[in-house]
Amino acid sequence: MKQRSPRSGVTRRAVLSTAASLPLLSLPQIRTAGWAQAGDPLPSWNDGAAKQTIIGFVQGAVDGSSRSFVPPEARIATFDQDGTLWVEHPMYTQVTYCLERVPAVIAQKPELKDAEPFKTVLSGNREAIAKLPMKDLEEILAATLTGMTLDAFEAQVGAWMRGARHPRWGRPYTELAYQPMQEVLRYLRANDFKTYIVTGGGQDFVRVYAQQVYGIPPEQVVGTAGGVAYSYDKEGRPILTKEPKLLLNDNNAGKPEGIHLMIGRRPFAAFGNSTGDRQMLEYTWAGDGPRLAMLLLHDDAQREYAYGPAQGLPDSKVGTFTQALYDEAKNKGWTVISMKGDWNRIFAFEATGSRALQ
Amino acid sequence: MKQRSPRSGVTRRAVLSTAASLPLLSLPQIRTAGWAQAGDPLPSWNDGAAKQTIIGFVQGAVDGSSRSFVPPEARIATFDQDGTLWVEHPMYTQVTYCLERVPAVIAQKPELKDAEPFKTVLSGNREAIAKLPMKDLEEILAATLTGMTLDAFEAQVGAWMRGARHPRWGRPYTELAYQPMQEVLRYLRANDFKTYIVTGGGQDFVRVYAQQVYGIPPEQVVGTAGGVAYSYDKEGRPILTKEPKLLLNDNNAGKPEGIHLMIGRRPFAAFGNSTGDRQMLEYTWAGDGPRLAMLLLHDDAQREYAYGPAQGLPDSKVGTFTQALYDEAKNKGWTVISMKGDWNRIFAFEATGSRALQ
Lengths: 358, 358
Prior knowledge:
Two copies of one chain form a homodimer. Chain A is an alpha/beta fold. The first copy, chain A, is built from 14 helices and nine strands. In chain A, the strands form two sheets. A seven-stranded mixed sheet of chain A has the order 6-5-4-3-7-8-9, with helices on both faces. Chain A has a two-stranded antiparallel sheet with strand order 1-2. In chain A, helix 4 crosses helix 7 (134-145). At the A-B interface, helix 10, strand 5, strand 6, helix 11 and helix 12 of A face helix 10, strand 5, strand 6, helix 11 and helix 12 of B.
């Protein structure tokens, strides 16, 4: 979190300025007092720098007497989805959807059955599927995400979401949202922040379940967006049809560009977990006044997965938490959340973690 | 306003169904009772079908026991801007801005001084300017609306808005918002509707003043949108630069397409005044349940302007209220608002109209 005086450009921590305004109380006492009144807003978070940073930021943002105060209408918080709000391994959920949707597409267009890349997908050969080049993957995405009416698409995704199960946990993908991040979403909203998803995933795809899973309405989902075409059905009723025309590639620089297009103002808080989120975090952090920039590090192979700097992966892997990003975060003062150290519970379906009581 | 049973497809007026649930009270008594408690929400509207339709729609939407009930999260209302929320004659405000901005552009790029269409604009010859073909106009728009940072653009528009005056009233354009529509915006918001501008004008342009003028935040302004490019300034700070790249032409079919892109759900109420709004009204009206579709007819040459069907203008004029649109509205049951007959006051700076008391 950053506390910057608009004039001097000095960066300070709001958590410290909050403490300074109450010189007789130590920081832990402030927090304890707050929780005693309202309950701990982040019970799945272990006590530590990450939790303190979030709470300090929010307490400063809502305190009208603080230099960290943020007017309610400016309280915008943006969250990457895959790997930040829910599990992204072993494969992005949307890519799994597209691959599993291929048989239904072939049923409509049998002539594709023996054409690549559909033939490979139908073969079920996981190794071969994993090796499909980007061009082939894009063809599969176009065939499964476009060409139908919006109503049909939403019904298809909704039905799949109800039936599909994650290979590791055997549960619906919608249950694999991270409980600690759900608490952050609710805590921010309880303090008049508008919470947005800003995802490299498909905007229309995520909108199908974002309200149910995250309490985030369609108009607060920003994602990679294709065009829709307005026309009329046989009865003359208006319909929207999803087109294979890319309007916004909501990754990397596309994230602040998409935030401008869809929201029109700079967030005060941003959460991500990969190089695809770097520019969103930079853009958020560069604004005047207090800002929150947080990166989730997947370092818990036992309870979830460990990848990125936790595993010493090379920088070249696209869309992961590289060592360079880790270093930039540390240099700039962004907060790195350790899944292993900061979270006592990962999923809502788990029993409340015993670590919280230690 | 439309009341449609989800099963039967029968279209009925919610105002009638509301009355039917209270058989002992006549409709005027219901309204009077409501106003006595809360005051008339639409004092600049004369009593009549348009006002009754709006109030009946809102009363039905918030009444949990009514078949017209709309869940709060689905309460989306969209408004065209030019000619619907404020004056669009003799020229769209944004086009006036672009023309008046040309000298500043020339000061930066003197080599354009003798090049068309800039030479014609600098000449001040109004007839010649009015005759500029669309291609030339687009060149002027690109030169004055793109190529600068977003921060610079917002400062330029804000400064112009403070200084510019409408040729007829000699007042800032921001004072030429229609008072009756301001009342509708506030009335809808007081009943938990999210109010959106959906304009053919520039999204970034309208966002500069929408909060101040209409109480509508940037994220609820949908408009014709160009791309922005993310980069860094000399100090390494992130900047967004406006690019001459069209992402969304928010007119005609582009309005429902833009509504999907930016909002992601169908409005329950839509207000427009021209053929550019036709598809937005159709899309809104075609949804299940109660819907409000309203068109403002400019038929008051004395207090504002008279154009469109009021003047028997031919169908060919783009972006106006054509006779064909008027006929479609009447056939479908949309409500046509007569500026002359339905509004007792047009601008906030006018004294309260005496017609209201008749």
